[in-house]
Specification:
This protein folds into three domains: 91 residues, Trypsin-like serine proteases (Thrombin, subunit H), CATH 2.40.10.10; 99 residues, Pdz3 Domain; 81 residues, PDZ domain (Pdz3 Domain, Roll). Strand 3 and strand 4 form a beta hairpin. The chain is an alpha+beta fold. The longest helix is centred in the first third of the chain and has 14 residues. 19% of the residues lie in helices and 38% in strands. The strands form five sheets. Strands 9, 10, 11, 12, 13 and 14 form a six-stranded antiparallel beta sheet that branches.
Length: 294
């Protein structure tokens, strides 16, 4: 339930159900929001969200709407997150958040098969920040984070809030899936700052099961993209096109193996059964694209 004075109507109570916990929103990945269908409008946003025992479980913070009014989706800041912020403000006058220094994405069924996971779970590392805590600890693109500081990570949305809630400078144990086996990496977290707020060549044959036409990066492209290796996608159809690969994408790795030549890409694809996961750079972003092989 939410209470407040929406549109100036005092003592208004609205009720609903919890749809999800730990929901990540594009503008605030550090807060694991509680999603409800409690009606929130100007006048009761910022107010408390109660459970049926009368306990305050969150602070109503945001709505999703195309009209500007309540549209059935509201989001509350969990009360433990709010209390942690309150304590930090009282003690230090500002809020600090831990930083790992990775770009992540969810693991779907196709990616799980590509990396040898039994079920889709964890946070897939699509990029590692240069000089960041993760790089210094030995994290790699293609690692799947399954646990953080004793907490199970079942989806990518759980990781940012877990890292942010951890004190900067703390050394934590991270469970990682790499090369079809689990391992543990110890990493000393940094501190988040405001700036922190994933074949054939052009002359030759097609890429067969992938359905891509690729070529090695030119010297100028390497300098421009700051990449030492990779294959530029010139044309795409078939399985790769259906998976979302676009002309201009740069293929950096396949199934966790760095791709330096067309022959190397062919070798990885030929050794794959039904799926291959390509690490692609698109502009400044990196993302893993799972492809169901034709």
């Amino acid at each position: 339930m939410a209470i407040g004075s929406p549109f100036g109507l005092e003592n208004t109570v609205t009720a609903g159900i919890v749809s999800a916990k730990g929901r990540s929103l594009p503008d605030d990945t550090y807060v694991p929001f509680i999603q409800t269908d409690v009606a929130v409008n100007p006048g009761n946003s910022g107010g408390p969200l109660f459970n049926m025992r009368g306990e305050v479980v969150g602070i109503n913070s945001q709505i999703y709407s195309r009209s500007g009014g309540y549209g059935g989706l509201s989001f509350a800041i969990p009360i433990d997150v709010a209390m942690n912020v309150s304590k930090q403000l009282q003690a230090k006058g500002h809020v600090t958040r831990g930083k790992l220094g990775v770009g992540i994405q969810d693991v779907d069924q196709a990616l799980a098969e590509s990396f040898g996971l039994d079920v889709p779970r964890g946070a897939l590392v699509a990029s590692v920040e240069k000089g960041g805590p993760a790089e210094q600890a030995g994290f790699r693109e293609g690692d799947v984070i399954l646990g953080f500081d004793g907490q199970s990570i079942d989806s990518a949305g759980q990781l940012p809030s877990a890292v942010a809630a951890t004190d900067p400078g703390k050394a934590v144990a991270v469970q990682v899936w790499r090369d079809r086996a689990s391992r543990e990496i110890s990493v000393k977290l940094g501190q988040t700052t405001e700036d922190d707020v994933v074949a054939a060549n052009v002359d030759g044959t097609s890429a067969g099961r992938l359905g891509m036409m690729v070529r090695p990066l030119s010297a100028a492209e390497k300098q421009q993209t700051e990449l030492s290796d990779g294959l530029v996608v010139e044309d795409v159809d078939g399985a790769a096109e259906e998976a979302g690969v676009r002309p201009g994408d740069i293929v950096i790795a396949a199934n966790g193996t760095s791709v330096k030549s067309v022959e190397q890409l062919r070798s990885v694809v030929s050794g794959s059964k039904s799926h291959v996961a390509l690490l692609v750079q698109r502009g400044d972003a990196r993302v893993f694209v799972p492809i169901e092989l034709g």
